[in-house]
Amino acid sequence: MKKHSARVAPLSACNSPVLTLTKVEGEERPRDSPGPAEAQAPAGAEAGGRTSHPCWRCSRAQLKKMFWGVVVVLCVCSSWAGSTQLAKLTFRKFDAPFTLTWFATNWNVLFFPLYYVGHICKSTEKQSVKQRYRECCRFFGDNGLTLKVFFTKAAPFGVLWTLTNYLYLHAIKKVNTTDVSVLFCCNKAFVFLLSWIVLRDRFMGVRIVAAILAIAGIVMMTYADGFHSHSVIGIALVVGSASMSALYKVLFKLLLGSAKFGEAALFLSILGVFNILFITCIPVILYFTKVEYWSSFDDIPWGNLCGFSVLLLTFNIVLNFGIAVTYPTLMSVGIVFSVPVNAVVDHYTSKIVFNGVRVIAIIIIGLGFLLLLLPEEWDVWLIKLLTRLKLGHQDAPYS
């Protein structure tokens, strides 16, 4: 039986109020060409440029992918914005961002079980849990998941995951959710800069422009509130969160490369196990030192905590595995769409002032984010598109 690979490259952490920290770049089936179709006749094409039914099937497949893309965009947007707003609401009753981070990260252990359920339902070649686990462990090397591998290749990413989420949630306490969500979009620019420096990725002028726009947007966002200490600290926390997310993604690509769906699910579950085993002591210490203290466990809003965790888990699942049904660019667009959603909610629930500087900063950062979504060969595709449009205009009959 032929096995198709799905490649995961760190990108969104976790991008969430905490975002996804990995992004899938492949599919369970062979990927379509990322660029425009070549100027050649498809199989089944007839003379004179007329195509037969196979071309229609291809178009129908693309339409199906676009439909699922809309669904994925809505899921990413709603889960991201929903988790951010619910975190803000939770802090009114439960002022413990690190404990909330720890609680939500524990839910990562569900990644591999959920993946295995999908494997059983979809795959024609059934494997036991043990067999599937051993096969996915090959991602870590010939010896599988050893104690040394756990502490050298998994633990550092567990720390980065926790820092990304904690800094993001702590920032929500300082500034409004609109500023937090838009500033976190800068992590894509940080990923490009780190990849260019560390991984020697291809230099792209348009992405340098996007990075400059992101930095300019950060400065303008700080200026929008008059450089008050409270807002400056909040913005610094979001930028720190975006930086940790970018570092996570670049290190993942540097140390681990890419992974199939099952390997990615196992890796994320391992991060949840690491969180339970080694991070649990920190919320306990914070509780007894009264840094994050609550008088009674009955006062904890368990509904909010569980709701936030479910939304964050949904966000990470869709962002990491949505590539199986649609294009990765559409999933990233869902993150941008969460910004206006948060802005609308903030307008009616908080005292946010959308002055000219803030609006311009949001637009600049959003534009930079969209520029970073352009593929490497975007200029070649643009030239081909303009050439085709020009030829089509010349061939058109004059009335």
UniProtKB/TrEMBL annotation:
Residues 34-49 have a biased composition (Low complexity). Residues 68-222 form the EamA domain. Pfam families: EamA. Residues 25-53 are annotated as: Disordered. The chain crosses the membrane at residues 66-87, 99-118, 139-161, 181-199, 206-224, 230-252, 264-288, 325-345, 357-374. Coiled coil: none annotated. GO terms for cellular component: membrane. Keywords: Membrane, Transmembrane, Transmembrane helix. PANTHER family: SOLUTE CARRIER FAMILY 35 MEMBER F3, SUGAR PHOSPHATE TRANSPORTER DOMAIN-CONTAINING PROTEIN. This is Solute carrier family 35 member F3. It comes from Canis lupus familiaris (Dog).
